[in-house]
Give the backbone structure.
Amino acid sequence: MPSSPKPSTPATVAQNEQTPIDFRTWNEVLEQSALVQETRFLTKLELIAFLRYCRDNHCRVTIARIRVYLAHLELQEAMGVAWSPASQAREALRWFVREAASSKTLKAETQKRAGFNRDGGDERDGRQNTDSERSEKRGARSGNGLSGGPVDAGRYELRTGIHSDDGDERDREAGSLGTKMRKADGRQEEYQRPAAQDLGANEWEAALIKATRERGFLWRTEETYRRWLERFGRFIAPDTPYKVGGEAVRAFLSELAVKQRASPSTQKQALNALVFFYKHALNRELGELDFKRASYRRVAPTVLSRSECGRLFEALEGTSRLMAELMYGGGLRLMELLRLRVKDLDLERKQLVVRAGKGGKDRITVLPEKLTAEFRAHLKRLWPLWQEDRAGRMAGVWLPEGLARKYPKAGEDWRWQWVFPSRSPARDPESGVARRHHVSDNTFQMAIKQAAATAGLNKRVTPHCLRHSFATHLLESGVDIRTVQDLLGHEKLETTQIYLHVMQKPGVGVRSPLDEGKI
């Protein structure tokens, strides 16, 4: 008598909902499905939106994550700010889960008929896979993109948290990447170029990608423009950008201001992305765009007192504290801090050179004298790591495109290394080269958030608050506002004047606030 199936316990159900879904061929399956063309189009848009949501939140695709995502969409729909009905996303994700289960079952049956066990051995004669088969598996795993950006719809899930059961094994492989690069097949994986394969999910996105890359846009800029195009595509669905023009763009931008309550900078970003797309990707002029402008709201910056800065620094330790003190002591933006290179530190003259800051401009700011000894020790600790990367034949650090062509080996030079490198290598989403990147912005932001909670600060503390505090404390010390403007890299004096509203009192002084010995 066949045994009856075991009843599902709550623990089993919870475990199943946390199991990652590996469905790498969803786009091909969708294209071959019996769904009508309009339904396939809407399903693809919803799935791409969900996969990007998983990538942005650094989470895997699971049933539990799908539930959270749908609850988020239902809340947006209840607030009247949803781009599409939550039921539409629910049907798309239901199809995704159903087809993923069918694909997994079919794959298991095929392997069973072929005589292969789960470990890859041949059950018919007990032999293990050949070297060529293992090489193919390594090649398939190498496409995941350790720090990946968006890719075409058919491969997108490889960079958005969908992992196979050997995800932990891939993480271990990433940690020992320097050793593996000595092998010939490792070198072949290192120089794959996923950006060249990333041609968009549809024809108009491919046109946008081509236009941005022809003009040498940064990867982050391309990412931003593609996200706005995706949101615009969902807004006008089932129409396409080819069928609509200025009227739809005006409606979309007005929707941002009226329903989404977007800030002026967010609306301006969307405007720039869509104007660029129509002008340079589709070669169409939108004409005059008369839309509802987002209302400008003057927001007072969050400024920490000197004692609060001291408590925050006390709650940090190691490199995180050094980064926070430098950001406050020099008035740096977050990405300016993370992108510092060894050559930008002038420890003798107590100066810090910010390269390609906001607006692509360089500037010189204060390097606190208090930190010079700490930076000498920090660079001394980084030297063995750099030598280890060179011994492991790891690719050099990222360089701007022009410099990388002119000086191909400059990325391996000590002077170009990141001041705050990551602990382990990552695969460049644009070039596909495995190299050591700088510390993730999310990592530092989380460290500041946790330190603020530990210090008991009752303010919303972000890394940018340290820059606000730098400017305010300088003005309170009596430093000329134009000097502060130069140190901050503001193009207009009006931007710097906002700190006049939060400063406590005027005074005199010209040194960095970190050097005044009050912390």
